[in-house]
Sequence to fold (267 residues):
Amino acid sequence: MVAVGGWLFVDREHAAAAFDQPWRRLREVTPHILVLLGVLALNRVFRNLGQELSWMLGWNVTGLIYAIEGEFVALVQVVATPALTVFFSFVYLYGYVFLATFPVVAYWLLADTDPMQRTLVAYALNYAIGLVCYTLFIAFGPRNLLPNTVQELLYATYPQSQILTSTVNTNTNAFPSLHTSVSVTVALLARRTRDVYPGWFKLSTVLAGLVVVSTMYLGIHWATDVVAGAVLAVVSVRLADRYHDLSWVWQAFPERTRVRTAEGRND
Fold:
């Protein structure tokens, strides 16, 4: 899918630029890659520990979420058909992965590494803040709380997908929806490069919306989880901007110091 996306949205000029100054690009983005990898490693290490801490804290917000929205997800599933279930299952499993990975490839091809850096940091913030929320709050999804009302459409249609999802998540980690937060993050950042990748901006916006709907249609997340995920996306993008701006200040500081030192010697 990433290859198809590259064929559709990346012109020859940018494709040829993939090998233009690769070491400079790698040097500029490596710190941000390490930040993301570090956060992902922490997520993996603290997955079980975080769940234990959650139960120790005992802040179960599932009832509060249900009190806020009731059986809204069940209403979404009223339109369920076998064809729609196959479609939204594909969007949830594969469309989401494509949405999250394609920007990394597309932004690597740009001479300016700013979009790549901001994307990597925004991803890291999504997962870091998400980990904190998953540790603080116990939140069962609608399919767990309302098994007689909300259908497990994804697992009923593709039982093997439960093996995959269980390796990266637990039933108590519904709030917020990281599928939503990462998807909205991608769409927000794609808007900034719409002059370079107009087709990608349009597709990412539509696909992000479909991913959001899929989380509720499949009975995985509450609407409240989705709203919280969208807020998390906005916060992550803004914090990524702040982090990036501050990092450039610190990078420029030694350069200014060297210039002043050289001027002092010349005097």
Notes: The mean pLDDT is 81. The chain has one domain: 21-251.
